[in-house]
Amino acid sequence: MLLNRRQFLGITSATTLVAVCSPNALLGQSLPNHPQQGSSATLKTMQALPQQKNRLLGYPINMTTPSEEFFAWRKELFVVGLNQFAFNNVGNPYDQSHIAYNSHAFEKELINRFGAIYGFSPQNIWGFLTNSGTDSNMHGLYMGRTILKSRTGVMPKIYFTQEAHYSIQILRDLLNLEWVVVGTERDGSMDIEDLERQLNANPNHPALVVATIGTTFKGAVDSIDGIQSKMRGRASYLHLDAALFGSYLPHTQFATDLLHEISDQETGKKAKRYDSIAISCHKFFGFPSPAGLFITTQTNFESFLAQFSQIHDPEYILQVPGTITCSRDAVKPAEFYFFSSESAFAQQAADARTMLDNADYLLKEMTNHYHHLQPTRADNRSNTIYFSKPGETIVNRYSLATMGLNVDGQHTPFAHVVVMPHANKEILDQFLTDLGKDGS
């Protein structure tokens, strides 16, 4: 029998209302008094994961457990309140915060230290620690769209390739940007001549270009200087999605590839190569939680802020934050600060060398013993080897990412291994042995 509102209120006390609306009533079952109760089965299924983690070869995640020093640093942060009660990094880390419970000092220093690695001028840098590489890309594209629209009065078109990370397609839709598809070279990098053709076909729109520094499946690198050479004389903004490669290339012989500024050979003056860069923290670095770095120039930030402040009322937090996200995690910047010390950079350099050496090793062994799988590497900057898809047992055992590629006009299933720091030769040898047993 259905009750009308008057009847319901007439027979319902506050106690009855609470009972009806309680989680137990809504779920139709009793909840445990403590989280330990009823969770043993779930925890039991997870017990084997630490022993299996080094078999993750198909995705760019460093499964190495951080050092004891990292966990000691966590304890130091805990002592001052981080992870004990609510800290919040809302706002611009380079501006005064009205909320004292933040880690802006660590966050600002993080951006300055990593910015130096990418060749940003210490007098012209801005950024913050984001929730992920995708979040960093979102801020880069939003900033680029806002700056270009304000300078020209025309909404820009966004240029990227099919090889770019799928997040760019999501963000394009979110920002309501028209996408111009740019072709690729055989290795998966952006076809610079096709970019020029596409730019010429859209002369009345500013260009928001995404260069991928390490494409998702093939591990190719778009040419920053090649892209810039085609955008001279037009309103443009170049954002680098360097989620994985951006974290390790600065510690290799290819460090100059990602320098933000280089000297112009004709004038001797510093020339800007790109506008902003996104890097993931949970990939090469092995940070145990998704996070990202977003770095740009103070000049870009101020241009963006002039427009952003028109849509954002700063009175509530006593500043214009310049970030899409409002409340922001204060624990992650403080924890990731551990990865910005001199000793941490030295460890990253060692990991980068070993990782690329192991990628060399895997390619050589697969070429020698499994040539029929067509093992391929974009170039020696890449830690990614892709090959014809093996059987499902191998794919599942090593969590291999798979994708259909167009090979000589035919759609062919491929898989790839992303050689991360945890993937040592012992793991790779086991993978090669299992590949030899594969019946596919």
Shape: globular
Strand content: 5-15%
> What is the CATH architecture annotation of the largest domain?
3-Layer(aba) Sandwich
Q: How many distinct helices?
A: 17
Which stretches are low in confidence, meaning pLDDT under 50 for 5 or more residues running? none
CATH topology of the largest domain: Aspartate Aminotransferase, domain 2
What is the residue-mean pLDDT, rounded to a whole number? 91
Give the CATH superfamily of the largest domain: Type I PLP-dependent aspartate aminotransferase-like (Major domain)
Q: Could you describe the 3D structure shown?
A:
By secondary structure, the chain is an alpha/beta fold. The protein is built from 17 helices and 12 strands. Strands 1-9-8-5-4-2-3 form a 7-stranded mixed sheet, sandwiched between helices. A 3-stranded antiparallel sheet has the order 10-12-11. Strands 6-7 form a two-stranded antiparallel sheet. Helix 8 packs across helix 9 (166-174), helix 8 crosses helix 13 and helix 15 packs parallel to helix 17. The chain starts with a helix and ends with a helix.
